[in-house]
């Protein structure tokens, strides 16, 4: 058991971002998933609406409430959870594979519930072969439709790509497509007013993961500098994220025809305890007992509790 694991009552919360394990169900069979054997486990329940309502109304300060999965859009209560979060004065977002967001009606429903931003996984960029390698299927068209719907309904997208040695070629065409969609719907990038972000992260060796090279933060930065044609020091200097100085992430800016876009790099390589970003004071998660715990330490504890032989 990790010695750095602890739990807080909601009224004692200190984390800026609190992730909500909305469901353990997912349509994909991704090669990289920190849930590992917890994925699609029928015995692990979805978040309870009323217990969640109690928690967010007890939080002492305004927080970023991030709905995650597996795939959060498979929880039918997601629009209601988003609406509840907004009514309680917090900022809702979600991390999604985007397959459900290819449907305009559903995206409009999320927007009407109060969703203004989300993280969209696009590990294959525009390349179906890379989606098959990373996500277990040819999903390029669905992902591109999801991204377009984000711009169409003015939901700010942060586009996430797990980067390995096989898919670096998808990065530049994907950025070009993001810019194309922004111009189509007249969404002007701005680090303050419209901070669309392109995030590259390494493979984390937690749960299910590809047994291949996992890039360091330095290697990701070198890749970003090459892709955006900016100086390496410009990439590496932005260690202040949401008011927290971080060692495993950086944020930077780069220019596009649609305005100044944000870039973010995150090194998910694990430490000796098998945890990426150990000891984070920014990322928390709602536990099965409706307490608040550090994010990755919680998942390590869940795996050891539910699957001690794995």
Structural account:
This protein has a single domain (10-306), classed as Alpha-Beta Barrel (TIM Barrel), CATH 3.20.20. It is 30% helix and 19% strand. It has helices at residues 49-56, 78-87, 104-113, 128-135, 140-152, 171-184, 217-228, 232-236, 295-306, and strands spanning 17-21, 64-68, 91-96, 117-121, 156-162, 197-201, 240-241, 244-245, 249-256, 259-266, 283-286, 292-294. The strands form 2 sheets. It has a 10-stranded mixed sheet. A two-stranded antiparallel ribbon has the order 7-8. Helix 1 packs parallel to helix 2 (78-87) and helix 5 runs parallel beside helix 6 (171-184). The longest helix has 14 residues, at 171-184. It is globular.
| Residues in β-strands, percent | 15-25%
Radius of gyration: 18 Å
Shape summary? globular
Which class do the helix and strand fractions yield? alpha/beta
Secondary structure layout plus pairing:
Blueprint: E1 17-21, H1 49-56, E2 64-68, H2 78-87, E3 91-96, H3 104-113, E4 117-121, H4 128-135, H5 140-152, E5 156-162, H6 171-184, E6 197-201, H7 217-228, H8 232-236, E7 240-241, E8 244-245, E9 249-256, E10 259-266, E11 283-286, E12 292-294, H9 295-306
Attribute tags:
disordered C terminus, 9 helices, single chain, 12 strands, ten-stranded mixed sheet, alpha/beta, TIM Barrel, 310 residues, two-stranded antiparallel sheet
Short synopsis of the structure:
By secondary structure, the chain is of the alpha/beta class. The chain contains nine helices and twelve strands.
